[in-house]
Amino acid sequence: MHKMYEEYNVGLTTARAKELYKEGYGNVQIDNTAKTTADIIKENVFTYFNLIFLIMTILLVAAGAYKSLTFLPVIICNSLIGIAQELKAKKVLDKLSVLNQSSARVIRDGSEDTVFIDRLVLGDVVLLTAGSQICADAVVIDGEVSVNEALLTGEADEIIKGRDCELKSGSFVVSGRCLARLSRVGVESYISQLMLKAKKMPSAEQSEMVRSINRIVIAAGAVIIPIGIALFVQSIVIQGNSFAETVPSVVAALIGMIPEGLYLLLSITLGLSTIRLAQNKVMLHDMRSIESLARVDTICVDKTGTITDNSMLVADIVLADSGYTDDDDQLQKMNVLISDYISCVPDDNITMHALEDFFKCASGRTCLSFNSFNSKYKYSSVQFDNSTYIMGAPEFILDSNYDLYKDAINRFASKGLRVLCFARYLGGAMGTEIFDPANENVSLKAPEGSLKGAYCEPLAFILLQNPIRENAKETFEFFNKQGVDIKVISGDSPVTVSEVAIQAGIAGADKYVDASLLDDLEISECATKYTVFGRVSPEQKQIIVRALKKQGRTVAMTGDGVNDILAMKDADCSISMAAGSDAAIQASQVVLMDSDFSKMPRIVAEGRRNINNIQRTATLFLVKNIFSLLLALFSIISVLTYPLQPSQITMVSLVNIGIPGFFLALEPNNKRISGNFLVKVLLKAMPAALTDFFAIAALVVFGNTFGVKPDDISVASTFLLAIVGFIILANISAPLNAYRLRVLLGCVLIMIIGAFLFHDLFSINYVSTECVMLFVLFAIATEPFMRYLTRLFTFIEKKFTKKCLNSQ
């Protein structure tokens, strides 16, 4: 153990800190989510399906079917593009991470300094205040803090930590101020040990879309080997075909069943989103949040920092004992008293900063004890030599005589002003008895806990205001048009919050409720009825989020303070402001680096574009996969050779899936996300997949019946497959605008040019007159057949969606 400095107020020297860091005692953080370059390359190259492709390549080379290797360049490009895209996204995120590094206030060389948390070392003395994330295990050596360990234990109770108490990394300070010496850092800290355990466990909960794509890939991976073996045995043993004849047809069937581009599509789309958002100063801690935001139908916001900007100023101070008239002498005395008060309370938030800027004439009065602001009880307190004072929400402080001042307080609040009450504590509640305020020798200890039943003499009302953000109206108007509900959840007076929300143009902002008057059950019942919730405790914020989710809502929670963390933890997606507390930033999935809530519409639009376009392209992939599976099973059962060649499958996939999927993914798409991803893509893919299967299966049977050559059937099947592919592409692109029409016609043109100029490469040979007639007949039949199947599966989808909604 290294020798520590005895004097905590001196801390380590800078030189000693550097030595300890070099010796491996630095607080180097473990990132449980970040991928290394090696991880990215390994994930894109060493995959199950790439192994299947390698085996198929070896078999084709052994069979001498070199023309059937056209899929190989596509697979190599897929891997290279995936690696390049993820590396690019990693580079952008790494740069943004540097800007978003958490820092700590540390005592070095006898003075306070600010350093990044990964530069802290064992034995450093850190200063912790409200909102600080405890970044390494530590022991309190001076002061007292209230700590919340909910992010570690799930328990929301605040724990008082005084001298010699242990602080666990990963918890956060709710109130108070202390000096603490780091006892375990880096991999040895509590939070790092949890992360190491988490790495050994299955990956974190995945989004619905990623989970659905994984199911598709796993299902394809499970059936591909037995079906491949069955086709191989059937062709050689039963039909008596040669090895050279068998391998290309088996490979063609398997290629059609492999969703090789789905993961590439997912990684490219999410990677591009990450880059676009990063360029707009938005950082994602969790990629799942993109889908969550796309599905959001309810956003819970705080007033301060979201509707209003983060600046706060004192608008006025009004004396309580002078009939609300100005008295210069009394005001001056009150200014001095409040200045003394705020110099004793170590709270570090925008309210305190606004008070410090306004009240600057402290007399140096001696402070005997204090309690930092508590977000649950809504007040702070200070005990001087001859009296105790309280500052906070009027409704909580003036419990016994609030009605005397209610009208005046509401009058201020109705103008959008936040009202703080500054009062003298005279006993009751946590005290023993009520004392005469005229007795100058009385000295009550600062109270702790609820002031219910206490008596406080109001001295002044401090009026605070936050400017409404310049683009707040435009932002909330966007969400209103998109059908996204806004819930304003604040610790301020509901009247104040309602007025500010009305000015910001939030729909239903006149429907407000005082949460301090409600129990947990009533809060849950009010969650969907009201838009504005005032005087909300941190626990109540969490209850509101849970109640909304229970109603089937997809909820995003924005926050910038420790009082928002519990609700953020339970929300489907959590968003923090970079100007907020360290704890809120670390608990969130999305960080607005410039603390600008107006970026939210852009983030939601980005998420919707991704999910809608991935859903659309996944439908195209599934058409090919389902069709290939059905046709392979049909070939096995009917003892027929699989009619398509690998090169033909490659060409159709290119013009029906690859090229259109890429260009359509670039198009903005603000359509609201709803429903189950897997069910939707399956039901949309089934009409085209079944049309493909029945048309080509019938074509094969008819061809064999009338003696049409296998090569002719293969070519006719290719064009039939392409035609159905273009029909489903047109359906999922509806309504067709100029951009989508160009993509569709461009793909048709590429198909025609490829068939004529590269007919040898793609095995497109001259076909007989009989085959042409057969092909035309089936091509004409596919459109009505698919149209009626589409109606059937649309009806099934609506029934399924209705059933899901009724079950919620």
TrEMBL record:
Secretion signal span: none
InterPro entries in UniProt: ATPase_P-typ_cyto_dom_N, ATPase_P-typ_P_site, ATPase_P-typ_TM_dom_sf, ATPase_P-typ_transduc_dom_A_sf, ATPase_P-type_domA, HAD-like_sf, HAD_sf, P_typ_ATPase
Entry keyword annotation includes Cytoplasm: no
Domain P-type ATPase A stretches: 99-195
Topology term for the membrane: Multi-pass membrane protein
Keywords carried by this UniProt record: Hydrolase, Membrane, Translocase, Transmembrane, Transmembrane helix
Keyword hit for Signal: no
Gene3D superfamilies xref list: Calcium-transporting ATPase, cytoplasmic domain N, Calcium-transporting ATPase, cytoplasmic transduction domain A, Calcium-transporting ATPase, transmembrane domain, HAD superfamily/HAD-like
Matches recorded under Pfam families: E1-E2_ATPase, Hydrolase
Membrane-crossing residue ranges in chain numbering: 45-63, 69-87, 216-238, 250-278, 618-642, 648-666, 687-707, 713-732, 739-758
EC number: 3.6.3.-
Example of a GO cellular component annotation carried by this entry: membrane
Cellular localization per UniProt: Membrane
Entry GO MF terms: ATP binding; ATP hydrolysis activity
Main localization, broad class: membrane
Enzyme class: hydrolase
PANTHER family: CALCIUM-TRANSPORTING ATPASE
Full protein name: Cation-transporting P-type ATPase
Organism in which the protein naturally occurs: Butyrivibrio proteoclasticus (strain ATCC 51982 / DSM 14932 / B316) (Clostridium proteoclasticum)
